[in-house]
């Protein structure tokens, strides 16, 4: 799961409340529009430079007020800002603003900005306000916790489970196209693509691109060489990262094609999960309370998944985008739809008091109770697994090697005994083309071996949650252990920026490894632009960049661990 909506789109909607303290607005419709959009752009510039909580909230209030006059004016201002400051090419700016923007504007109109929603948004999306905490509710289990429950013994036999994530195969991938382009996704032909690329896309993929179809196919072909897979799971995100182009039609077409490819390449059942990229536009999952339609997606996926799922699960997908299935006696998989707790699902900001949108948690509890009654072990599959760093990503996008993971799971206790991650070295792709070779899939590491070196685990013991916790404790005290982790996190491509105790990254990363909830706010925002109203201002830098925007987006040290600012620096590598 990658966060992909640039901050400009959001912050551009941010304008200060001074709009209404200003002299009387012009009366002609066209003049009015110009006056308000200019005001919005102005105030946005100020808001993004100060990045103060009060300014951010006031900005949202201003945007909300203008929305009542004409929603399009807010969007026009946002699109104008995005292009004026050359954050992205015009087509990308417009695509993003006019697909994501209407939902943000509607959320603003539904929100109680001055009763906490404003601060909440400013914290979650920008990190401009302190963490607000989350208003929680209680979803009770129908029955009380069983007394003296004992975990089942291990059989001592393991089976192999294939874990795929972030398929992101791009059927518009074009070998020979520009791999170092100015858009969020490269290796495609765009209207203004140069005749002679700076770097040609190989036929197997590139670090700035999603996977070509044949990379996905080759991966699936390789799996049986290293594992006897009993069944497979896919934790979401099938469409490519052309988020400014994604809509209902593109999603349906891409999902249909991808699941066909997977069905052809896998000899086992696949149990998929809905990720944030499954929506069209990306991330936007309406709830019953917000208005908006997502039934088209559930119906389409239910169809794609009916190859592998029993009828009751297919039915559940149509209702919840979630389902349960028992792939083997004693084991139950619960495939959740986590998009109702995703911070970039802008629909949620209009209904922040709804702690269980669409009753997904209520549904989950019912499934857990049923599994408990049946004496089953449960494995939950969601698009943001927290137990292991998500390194089963098929896509090399961005700056990581493509890969997959094999879990070794006990056939009776269903505990995980090992997680083996396989990768191919994307930097070698040009040489595969030159010699007619295929990707060099190979074992990157076994979690048991790699981390067992630091936190010993008995041969008869599984990789338990408590063991993983101890591994994260080692990361705090042993720099080498943490650096090994960081290398694995980049899938051994060694292209991620340094993450150390000294630059604050290690602490945040370890916090995030342990955090199970969006409200466990680990990350602090790191701006390279200093406030213009406070001491410490570097005047020469400020003079060279009067708006401050350029340097903000040009942060020289993209911090992939920083979830705020939407990972923009990391994504665009500006
Ligand atoms: C709102 O603004 C757009 C231009 O941004 C214009 O086309 C439209 O007619 C306006 N709507 C109303 C109701 O004034
Ligand atoms: C799969 O199982 C068969 C039969 O037990 C065995 O011969 C083969 O080596 C196994 N393959 C892998 C990759 O483990
Ligand atoms: C984790 O560490 C604690 C404290 O050192 C220890 O008691 C416990 O046995 C460890 N658990 C595992 C599974 O390593
Ligand atoms: C101020 O910014 C300029 C231009 O970016 C830079 O060369 C200089 O080293 C900075 N000075 C300080 C004290 O940070």
Automatic annotation (TrEMBL):
Signal peptide start-end:
1-21
Where Zn(2+) 2 is bound, by residue? 237, 276
Cite the Saposin B-type domain residue spans from the record: 49-133
A GO BP term, please?
sphingomyelin catabolic process
Does the entry annotate any disulfide bonds, and if so which pairs? 53-129, 82-93, 181-186, 187-209
Q: Which PROSITE patterns match?
A: SAP_B
Report the Pfam families cross-referenced here: Metallophos (PF00149)
Q: Where does Zn(2+) 1 bind?
A: 166, 168, 237
MF (Gene Ontology): hydrolase activity, acting on glycosyl bonds; metal ion binding; sphingomyelin phosphodiesterase activity
Cofactor(s) for this UniProt protein: Zn(2+)
* UniProt keyword terms in alphabetical order: Disulfide bond, Glycoprotein, Glycosidase, Hydrolase, Metal-binding, Signal, Zinc
Q: Per its UniProt entry, which superkingdom is the organism in?
A: Eukaryota
Gene Ontology cellular-component terms for this entry are: extracellular space; membrane
Cofactor notes: Binds 2 Zn(2+) ions per subunit.
Similarity-based family:
Belongs to the acid sphingomyelinase family.
- Biological function: Converts sphingomyelin to ceramide.
Q: What is this protein called?
A: Sphingomyelin phosphodiesterase
């Amino acid at each position: 799961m990658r966060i992909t909506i640039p901050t400009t789109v959001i912050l551009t909607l941010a304008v200060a409340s001074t709009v209404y303290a200003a002299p009387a607005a012009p009366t002609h419709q066209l003049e009015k529009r110009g006056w308000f959009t200019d005001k919005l752009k102005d105030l946005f510039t100020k808001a993004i430079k100060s990045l103060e909580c009060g300014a951010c909230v006031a900005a949202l209030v201003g945007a909300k007020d203008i929305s009542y006059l004409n929603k399009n004016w807010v969007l026009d201002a946002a699109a104008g800002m995005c292009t004026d400051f050359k954050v992205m090419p015009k087509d990308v700016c417009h695509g993003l603003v006019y697909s994501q923007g209407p939902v943000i504007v509607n959320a603003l109109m539904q929100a109680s900005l001055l009763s906490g929603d404003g601060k909440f948004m400013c914290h979650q999306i920008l990190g401009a306000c302190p963490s607000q905490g989350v208003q929680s509710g209680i979803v009770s289990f129908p029955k009380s916790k069983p007394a003296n429950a004992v975990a089942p013994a291990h059989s001592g036999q393991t089976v192999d489970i294939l874990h795929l994530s972030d398929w992101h195969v791009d059927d518009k991938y074009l070998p020979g196209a520009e791999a170092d382009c100015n858009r969020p996704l490269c290796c495609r032909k765009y209207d203004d693509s140069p005749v002679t690329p700076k770097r040609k896309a190989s036929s197997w993929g590139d670090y700035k691109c999603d996977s070509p179809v044949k990379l996905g196919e080759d991966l699936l072909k390789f799996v049986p060489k290293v594992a006897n897979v009993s069944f497979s799971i896919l934790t979401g995100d099938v469409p490519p990262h052309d988020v400014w182009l994604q809509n209902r039609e593109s999603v349906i077409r891409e999902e249909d094609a991808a699941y066909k490819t997977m069905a052809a390449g896998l000899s086992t059942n696949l149990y998929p999960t809905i990720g944030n990229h499954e929506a069209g536009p990306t991330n936007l999952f309406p709830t019953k309370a917000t208005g908006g339609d997502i039934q088209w997606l559930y119906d389409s996926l239910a169809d794609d998944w009916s190859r592998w799922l029993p009828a009751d699960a297919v039915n559940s997908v149509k209702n919840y985008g979630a389902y349960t299935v028992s792939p083997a006696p004693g084991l139950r998989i619960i495939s959740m739809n986590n998009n109702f707790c995703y911070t970039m699902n802008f629909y949620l900001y209009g209904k922040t008091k709804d702690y269980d949108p669409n009753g997904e948690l209520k549904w989950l509890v019912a499934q857990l109770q049923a599994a408990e009654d049946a004496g089953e072990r449960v494995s939950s599959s969601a698009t943001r697994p927290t137990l292991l760093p998500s390194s089963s990503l098929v896509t090399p996008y961005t700056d990581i090697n493509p890969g997959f993971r094999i879990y070794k799971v006990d056939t009776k206790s269903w505990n995980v005994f090992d997680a083996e991650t396989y990768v191919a070295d994307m930097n070698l792709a040009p040489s595969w083309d030159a010699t007619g070779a295929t990707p060099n899939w190979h074992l990157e590491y076994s979690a048991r071996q790699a981390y067992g070196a630091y936190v010993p685990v008995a041969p008869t013991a599984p990789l338990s949650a408590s063991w993983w916790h101890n591994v994260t404790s080692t990361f705090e005290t042993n720099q080498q252990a943490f650096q090994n982790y960081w290398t694995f996190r980049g899938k051994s491509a060694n292209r991620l920026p340094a993450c150390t105790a000294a630059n604050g990254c290690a602490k945040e990363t370890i916090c995030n490894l342990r955090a199970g909830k969006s409200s466990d706010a680990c990350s602090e925002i790191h701006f390279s632009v200093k406030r213009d109203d406070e001491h410490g201002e570097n005047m020469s830098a400020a003079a060279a960049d009067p708006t401050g925007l350029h340097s903000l987006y040009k942060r020289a040290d993209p911090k992939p661990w920083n979830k705020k600012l939407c990972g923009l620096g990391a994504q665009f590598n500006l």
